[in-house]
Backbone:
């Protein structure tokens, strides 16, 4: 028995997380316990779930996040593997609810799985999204090989240099990742500085933020859409690399081809 058995909508959302976790592993983006997923599942919480007892003490988030009052999240478990989460999301992830003080949470799940050590930074992003009135409810951190490789070269760290190159590799990239790729310079994983820089960059109107020499952080309405944005960008990076491997610099779509595409799809310039 799982607490999800009586809540089909929540079960479907957790299944979607498991499906994406499987893709991350298959793509080679999720070595060991690499990557994180958190999804705001508050809209699926019904009275039966609200009545469930917590299976943990109140635990500190590490910061006060005033917009998260009453919110529920599914989060990958700390130290857990995406490939295990794909098979068994409730043994490798956790459902938590934020307590009224907005500084503590409790676990309401099948098993006592401690949420990701990145919880404070992921929750800070969700707090920011809610404050902004965003429809985005999912956040994804993963290690896409070719995108990370790009950030080992200074020229791609300039604001929107990688975005312009990636958009020009294949038309779908701008159509399906219209805000491009934000850049955050190297910072210590899990640090407060990295979390704050990520939120600042998301706020410059990016859905996908690159952490130099580490990975991406993406937000979208659900986890499949967040995954798709990263997948589309990484595919473009693979095309760039494939051209370089064939011994030439890829031409990229021309300015007028990009303009025609932007007009046809109603994309920002
Ligand atoms: O939690 O990838 O950067 C695993 C990570 C943190
Ligand atoms: Zn990482």
Residues:
């Amino acid at each position: 028995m799982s607490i999800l058995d009586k809540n089909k909508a929540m079960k479907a959302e957790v299944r979607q997380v498991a499906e994406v976790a499987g893709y991350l592993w298959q793509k080679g983006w999720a070595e060991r316990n690499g990557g994180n997923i958190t999804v705001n599942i508050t809209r699926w919480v019904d009275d039966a779930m609200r009545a469930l007892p917590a299976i943990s003490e109140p635990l500190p988030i590490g910061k006060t996040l005033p917009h998260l009052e009453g919110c529920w999240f599914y989060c990958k478990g700390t130290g857990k593997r995406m490939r295990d989460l794909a098979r068994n999301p409730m043994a490798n992830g956790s459902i938590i609810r934020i307590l009224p003080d907005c500084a503590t949470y409790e676990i309401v799940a099948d098993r006592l799985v401690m949420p990701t050590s990145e919880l404070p930074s992921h929750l800070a992003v969700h707090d920011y999204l809610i404050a902004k009135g965003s429809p985005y409810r999912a956040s994804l951190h993963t290690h896409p090989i070719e995108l990370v490789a790009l950030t080992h070269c200074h020229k791609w760290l300039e604001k929107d240099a990688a975005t312009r190159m990636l958009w020009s590799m294949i038309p779908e990239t701008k159509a399906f990742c219209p805000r491009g790729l934000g850049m955050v310079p190297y910072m210590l994983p899990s640090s407060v500085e990295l979390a704050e820089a990520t939120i600042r960059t998301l706020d410059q109107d990016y859905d996908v933020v690159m952490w130099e020499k580490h990975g991406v952080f993406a937000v979208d309405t659900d986890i499949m859409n967040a995954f798709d944005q990263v997948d589309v960008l990484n595919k473009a990076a693979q095309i760039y690399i494939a051209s370089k491997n064939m011994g030439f610099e890829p031409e990229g779509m021309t300015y007028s081809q990009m303009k025609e595409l932007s007009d046809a799809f109603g994309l920002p310039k």
About this structure: Residues 33-36, 116, 118, 141, 189 surround Dihydroxyacetone (ligand 1) (CB under 6 Å). The first strand starts at residue 36 and ends at 40. DSSP finds ten helices and nine strands in the chain. Strands lie at 36-40, 59-60, 72-76, 93-98, 104-107, 138-142, 181-184, 208-211, 215-220.
